[in-house]
Amino acid sequence: MATENDREVAAGSLLTRHIAGYLVAQAIAAAGSLLSIVIIARLLGRSDFGTFSVVIAITFAAAQFSVNWIQVSLLRFAPLAQTPAEAATVDRTLVVSLLLMVAVVMLVEAVVGGAIAFASQGVSKRLVAAAVAVTAGTMTYNALRTRAQSRLSPGSYTTTTAGNTLLRFVLPVVAVKVWGASAEAALAGVAAAYAVSIVPLAATMPAAVARREGGTAAAMRTWWGYGAAMSGWFLTLQILASADRLMLGVFRSASTAGLYSATYDLVNKGIYLPADAVALAGRPLAMRSAAQADDAGVRAIVRELTRKFLLVTVPVAVITIAYGHRVVSILLPAEFEDGARIIPVVMAGFLISHVCVFVGIYLEAGGRTRMVFAAAGVAAVANLTANVILIPLYGYMGAAVGTLISYSIQLVAIAAICRGSFASLVPVRSVATVAMGALAMLPVLAAAGRLPGDALTGAAGGSILGLVIFGAVAALRHELPPVAALRAYAPGRWSER
Fold first, then answer.
1. Per-domain boundaries in the chain
2. Residues 6 or more apart from 62 whose CB is under 8 A from it?
3. Residues whose CB is less than 8 angstroms from the CB of residue 3 and which lie 6 or more positions away in sequence, other chains included
4. CA pair distance 465, 457, nearest whole angstrom
5. How many other CB atoms sit within 10 Å of the CB of residue 456?
6. How far apart are CA 17 and CA 3, in angstroms?
7. pLDDT tens for residues 68-122?
8. What are phi and psi of 110, to 5 degrees?
9. Dist. CA 97–CA 228, nearest whole Å
10. Dihedral, 63, 336, 333, 179 alpha carbons, nearest 10
């Protein structure tokens, strides 16, 4: 019989293989998104980039809210399909649900956006049309790409992400060059990128999806019952991620929102590179263990998710905090440099929020989706309240602090919901290890930053040496087991088949 340690080793082995696959996709996506932010910010300037980022935040929140119940249901039920007929039912449910949601959201967004454009001279009909197109494209692309993830196919996911990333970098720039430097043109380019990316994803659907067979309506009800609470959870996460810039636009200006958004998005892309790879690999595996009524297996996966996330992300976070001002000054125009002040606060918030996500997978696997929603809802209310109080007083720094406060409240809420289980889901030893490694890195990074000569060279050398020191601390603490140890235990239930 497998021991708890055996389960953790097996979970670590399988997660390592899947994370490696998804990490390639996330690296491509992060690099492309980073270049897009830099180029579009330079082409549009603070004001138009602020409008662009606010619209993107709104459309992304709308897309997440409307299709996330489909996505989480795919991740839950698709891995359980054992026959071609069951797989076809899953695909039919996906297509019908997606078409209904896209039609409803496009109609609502067009009506609301049209009313705003009619009442406000600052919102054009072209901006509304572009926003509707981006929302529809984001919804469809995200749902179809999740299908590849649900089938435990990192390779397909990577290919799709690479193509979409390239298009989202090239087409907005082309649109701005052709139609002029405006938020509308950049959004039109984003919509075109999603439209092109959807074609190969849709082509992978089998012909059996078009057949009219029973079971689709019942499957949709099951999906909705499971995914509705999770959809609310993802919506509140988007509120946490976008409310600050929306309120900056209300209480300050679009220029201030653009300043904040550029730095926020730079940090976002850097930290999400390892974080998303870990989450993408872990959620389907945790759901599969939950379907086998293997609570110990789910715990092992969640614990390994958190451990790997901390070991990979914390050194990146420390380097970003140490050299953030240099990165911003190199990548963005001088008018954006003041935004680098928020980097330490935003980075701390990201680390806390992702621990919440990983622990939340355990609650989700156990069917306690409403509890996950409740914890995120409490954090969203706290975020809105903090933004209303802090943004008028402290501007974009107040927005960053408000986000950190809300994520901290979310972590406390999740810990309270998990009660005794929380300690078994968060690897305390690994937390201590990354704290020791981070402290060991700081003197090296500070000394490298003061060296004479080219600042970029000093930062690069300090980063490399800092990573070596962090790795040495992790190895001494036995947090980096040899590959042979990870392969030592591979029972059938953990195999990729």
1. 4-426, 427-482
2. 105, 109, 135
3. none
4. 12
5. 12
6. 22
7. 778 777 777 776 677 777 777 788 888 888 888 888 888 888 888 778 777 766 6
8. -65, -40
9. 13
10. 40
Residue 325: its H or E element: helix 295-331
CA distance 475 to 387: 41
Report the alpha-carbon distance of residue 470 to residue 315 in Å, rounded.
7
Contact 223, 97 (CB under 8 A): yes
Match 């636009």 to its residue by tokens.
Answer: 249
CB crowding 226-263: b at 16 or more within 10 Å, else e: bbbbbbbbbbbbbbbbbbbbbbbbebbebbbbbbbbbb
- Global pTM exceeds 0.90: no
Residue in 56, 12, 1, 2 with CA at minimum distance from that of residue 300:
12
Q: Which residues have C-beta within 8 Å of that of residue 18, sequence separation ≥ 6?
A: 152, 154, 280, 281, 282, 285
Q: Which two tokens stand for residue 71?
A: 């996505």
Whole-angstrom distance, CA of residue 85 vs CA of residue 66: 27
**Residues in CB range of 223: below 8 A, 6 or more apart:** 69, 70, 73, 77, 93, 97
Q: What is the DSSP letter of 293?
A: T
Closest CA to 4 of 298, 357, 290: 298
**Of 195, 177, 65, which is closest to residue 130 (Cα–Cα)?**
195
How far is residue 424's CA from residue 303's CA, in Å, rounded to a whole number? 7
Distance from C-alpha of 456 to C-alpha of 442, rounded to nearest angstrom: 17
Structure tokens at 50: 């602020």
Judge whether 141 and 201 are in contact, CB under 8 Å.
yes
413 pLDDT more than 60: yes
